[in-house]
Amino acid sequence: xxxxxxxxxxxxxxxxxxxxxxxxxxxxxxxxxxxxxxxxxxxxxxxxxxxxxxxxxxxxxxxxxxxxxxxxxx
Length: 74
Fold this sequence. Notes:
globular; TumE-like
C-alpha cells in the first residue's frame, strides 16, 4: 500500500490523496485499488476494472483487505 497526501485536492482527486494498493505476485496483479491520473478512483480484480466510490481512506483500506481475504478463501 502506498498513499500520498497531495498539496491540494483537485477535480480528479477531491479527497487530496494519490494511492496504490496492490495484492498479487511479481508480474501478476490480483487485486488493486488506485487512482491513476485520467482514470479516477477505481479497483482491479485480475483483468476486470471498475470504478470505486471513495468515501474515506479507512474505508478503502477495509474494502481492499476484505477483497484480499475473499481471494485467499478461493
